[in-house]
Amino acid sequence: KLPVNDPVDIAFCSPIPPPYSFDINQTASMLGTQSASDYYITYYDSSAQDARDGATTGVIPNQDFGKYKVYGTSKTIWVRFEEVNGNGCVEVKPFELSVNPYPTISGDLTVCKGLQTQLTGLGTPYTSSAWTSSDTAVATVDNNGLVSGLSLGTADISYTNANGCNATVKI
């Protein structure tokens, strides 16, 4: 096993349709203090088998690292490390590219002082504090999206889904 670090998955939230552009270069963080000149490093988008075999199929050219395009919502990339000294030692490390849609908030966006309105956030909620209010003197919101009007004014109510993407509405 080669002494290289695991790559990290890359994810972001986007309101636009594909294609999405990623900077996929993780060579420095994977090598840590080691020298890149000690390895042949190749990025693949075809398969783990191609990466293990050192195939020419699916090789991502170095000049495309900063602008790698994904045309769906996810893609696996494999990074192949081969020692330059020729001992045949190879390590293949995968990481995921993911694009998550922004959630939406539905419900009545008006609440009077002393009343409540129920908002619904699309998608699985964040594990803690999925709902927040920007001004709890005007309106509070519980973990289920129930908004309580406390005084005159406006507040931004935000909902965060399990992917860390959020949406905000003005109440």
Give the percentage of residues in beta strands: 35-45%
Give the beta-strand count.
13
Helix content: under 10%
In which order are the strands of the major sheet placed? 1-6-5-3
Can you tell me about this structure?
- The protein is mainly beta and 171 residues long.
- The protein is built from two helices and 13 strands; from the N terminus they run E-E-H-E-H-E-E-E-E-E-E-E-E-E-E.
- The strands form four sheets. The chain has a four-stranded mixed beta sheet. It has a four-stranded antiparallel beta sheet with strand order 7-8-11-10, with no helix packed on it.
- Strand 10 and strand 11 (146-149) form a beta hairpin.
- The longest helix is centred in the first third of the chain and has 6 residues, at 48-53.
- The radius of gyration is 23 Å and the shape is elongated.
- The protein starts with 9 loop residues before the first strand and ends with a strand.
- The relative contact order is 0.18.
